[in-house]
Amino acid sequence: MAAKASVSPPEGDLSGAFEALRAAARHLPDIVETTSYGTPALKVGTKLLARVKDAGTVVLMCPLDEKEMLFEAAPDIYFETDHYKGWPAILVRVHAIPPEELRQRLERIWQRQAPRKAVTGWLAAKN
Fold it and tell me: Is 3 domain-assigned?
C-alpha cells in the first residue's frame, strides 16, 4: 500500500496546526489555550509552550543548545528564520513531524516551563 502524501491545509486555516498542538499536549496538566501574536497558542501559566505561526508551521519553545542538533537531525521538520536566531524557539513543519515526536517535544518544554511543584506531582503520578 502506498503511503499517503501529506497535504497542507489552506494558507489561512490555522485550525489543523492548532489541533495537532492540542492533541500533543492533551496529557499535560495546567495547559492554557490562548493566543500569541494573534494566533492560537498553548501556555502553562503565563509561559509560552507553543504557538501556531501559519497553517503549516508551529513555533515551539526550545533551549538554544538543542536547536542546532534538531536542525541537523531532522531538517525536513525543524528550521529557523532570521527572526528566530538567538531566541529559544524553533520552527516546526507541523505536517512533517510525527505526532509522538511533537508530544515528546511539548512534554520536554512543559517540564522546563511549568512550576516545579506541578512537574514533580505530574512525574510522580506518571510513574
Answer: no
Q: DSSP letter at 63?
A: -
Tracing cell 503511503 back to the chain, one arrives at 3
SS3 (DSSP) at 42? strand
Assess if residue 121 is contained within a domain.
Answer: no
Residues 6+ apart with CB under 8 A from 96: 6, 76, 77
Read off the pTM.
0.86
- The amino acid sitting at 97 is I
Among residues 54, 62, 61, which one has the least CA distance to residue 13? 54
Query: How does pLDDT run across 32-84, given as a tens digit for each residue?
Result: 999 999 999 999 999 999 999 999 999 999 999 999 999 999 999 999 999 99
